[in-house]
Amino acid sequence: MVNNDTVKRLYRIAQQLRVNVVEMIGVGKAGHLGGSLSLGEIVAALYFHKMRFDPQRVTNPDRDRFLLSKGHAVLIQYAALIELGIIPRAELKHVKTLGGLQGHPDMAKTPGMEAVTGSLGQGLSIGVGMALGLRLDRRPSRVYVIMGDGELSEGQLWEAAMAARRFHVDNLTGIVDRNRIQATGPTKDIFDIPDIERKWEACGWHVMTVNGHDVPQVLDALDAAERVKGRPAVIVADTVKGKGISFAEHNAAFHNGIMTEEQYRQAMAELDARQAELPRA
Q: Which long-range contacts (CB under 8 A, 24 or more apart) does 91-99 make?
């Protein structure tokens, strides 16, 4: 059980990550706002508490690996790497510009990235391979793979899920960002995948469901996943697309939307107000 100060600290970090994401997108530039904001608490819990990850040694072979299979939400990962000091804060102003940070993970130019992702459905396959390699090398590392709920319509993902169980990949934790909205509307209207938990169970995974914005629930599930032996674990996290910004919440238009000057100011004001309300550790 984590102490209350840790929980307070992670809530404040999650909120700062959202501020960073909004600043990266800015005014008049398309950016994947909704699916980045839905991951604030999960990414904060992983990078700033759970993962074995030293910002001073990002290539340490014993580090835990973070894979964002829904690579279009890379802004939230950049936000974390900026807070950790791995990416310079000045890069906030250069996202999706020539020579700047790209709109999907780029291993060649961005420190801290473990794979090039964003072609949806492939991240879990990469994660399974990484986890098997780490096991062969007898490394203590774990692999964390974040997927979108819309992404679950990709067949390759389920092939990877079955392979992970077949080969008893218990150093792998999957996280499904179930925000129920994909690029053009609700997932249930576009490609409905009911009973997500039962499908993962049918593939042989240990399954947990949490409120993805509740830090204690997220931390408890991450700890529980690490205790599972002989098979992989998946956390289905119920989240809100566009979390923290009233006009973006549950709104498919801000899956990859463009903010006006007025919307940008409103978004920053709402996030700053929420940050001011959060208790300090």
A: 92/20, 92/23, 92/24, 93/23, 93/26, 95/24, 95/25, 95/31, 96/29, 96/31
How far apart (Å, rounded) are the C-alpha atoms in residues 168 and 98?
43
Domain range for 56 is 4-277
- pLDDT level of residue 281 (50, 70, 90 thresholds): confident
- The reported pLDDT for the residue numbered 160 is 98
Q: pTM of the full predicted structure?
A: 0.98
The arithmetic mean of pLDDT across residues 232-258, rounded, is 98
Separation between Cα atoms, residue 29 and residue 66, nearest integer Å: 27
Q: Are 199 and 193 in contact (CB under 8 A)?
A: yes
CATH code, domain with 191: 3.40.50.970
Phi first, then psi, for residue 121 (nearest 5°) are: 100, -10
Task: Provide the number of structural domains found in the chain.
Answer: 1
